[in-house]
Design brief:
The chain has 183 residues and is an all-alpha fold. It is built from ten helices and no strands. Helix 2 packs across helix 4 and helix 7 crosses helix 9. The N and C termini lie far apart (44 Å).
């Protein structure tokens, strides 16, 4: 049997083929639900949020120009729906903090959390999207609708600020901070 690519599925879905869209949903439903569940800690609310993500994508499908990266479109839609609510924005940051604090580091989780909290929300999110989630500069730029150069500059600034914040928290650990935070 010939396996159809995601790009082909997207093209068929844009033509109104519901089965193609259902295959795309099936491919991304679990990760979207998992993030939504982590976001709201409620299965019913996570299911509604997951449905909202795919409903939003389906309604924009015919006019969207996302042939190259459906996954990024799904992630962007999820993030936008979450950011529509101020409490949602705080919860996303909390989730990213948890992931950042769990990464291997010579710093105590509380120390790292305090240092991260000293960054601006935008700088912190760029740093976490790049260094914790692992998105590329281009993906972050697309997701946040900023120029790639701006992402690189803000990331460099965020890393410097994080090193300084960690240094102020643990003055003898500057060398360790530079080794663990900067690639």
């Amino acid at each position: 049997m010939n396996k159809i690519t995601e790009k082909q599925l997207l093209a068929h879905a844009k033509k109104g083929e519901l089965a193609a869209f259902e295959e795309l949903v099936a491919a991304y439903e679990h990760p979207v639900f998992a993030f939504a569940f982590r976001f709201c800690d409620d299965s019913a609310a996570a299911q509604k949020l997951t449905q909202d993500v795919f409903l939003s994508i389906y309604t924009a499908l015919s006019s969207a120009h996302t042939e190259n990266n459906f996954a990024l479109w799904v992630y962007r839609t999820m993030l936008q729906l979450c950011l529509q609510n101020a409490a949602a924005s705080k919860k996303i940051t909390d989730i990213l903090f948890e992931d950042a604090v769990r990464t291997q580091t010579p710093f105590a989780p509380a120390t790292l959390a305090v240092a991260l909290s000293q960054l601006s929300v935008e700088s912190r999110n760029i740093l976490l999207l790049r260094d914790v989630i692992g998105l590329t500069y281009s993906e972050i730029a697309q997701l946040l609708t900023l120029e790639e150069t701006s992402i690189k500059l803000q990331l460099a600034k965020a890393r410097r600020q994080l090193v300084l914040a960690l240094q102020s928290e643990t003055p003898t650990s500057l060398d360790a901070a530079e080794g663990s935070v900067l690639p």
